[in-house]
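Journal club prep — side note

Before the paper discussion, L.F. wants everyone to see what a predicted structure for a comparable chain looks like in token form. Sequence:
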Amino acid sequence: MREQLLLICNWSTLGVCAALKLPQISAVLAARSARGISLPSLLLELAGFLVFLRYQCYYEYPLFTYLEYPILIAQDVLLLLCVFHFNGNVRGAVPYLGAFVASWFILPLQKWTIDLAMNLSTLISSASKFAQLQYLWKTGDAGAVSALTWSLASYTCAILVRFVIMLALNLWVTATVLRYRTAAVKAE
């Protein structure tokens, strides 16, 4: 039963990721505008995905454990090109794409660089969300931002909520143990 549930979670997450950015790309194309989309958010998200994918490849993890990342990267690159196109400067994407390609080869030059990048990838991905929020708050305009894309992204994270809850509870128990251990030492 547990294996079947895990298989369903894996395939559903992969399916959602395969279509994750399609509503956003469709919204931008339909609006013929990238209004509301934060370029720094998109670049940070792309960087986080790239680091994660490179790390998985470097350590030769099974393809199924990271299959969604090449799909997400392809969708983000397409969205990036759309953003630059509708902002009137497709050539502006070239330096960013060049930097991403170069980082693919630079990251694994030293083991510590790929490990450090991976440790920072959650921070990078989180920063991408804050950049989008900041942009929305600043402009007060969602423009062509797709709520469906963000909802689908939430689904892929919801699978991990159990682990976050368990992490928080385990840390709480650890802190409580340390607190009472300190109190017991003081009492003696």
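L.F.'s comment for the group: Residues 111-139 form the longest helix (29 residues). Keep this in mind when we get to the figures.
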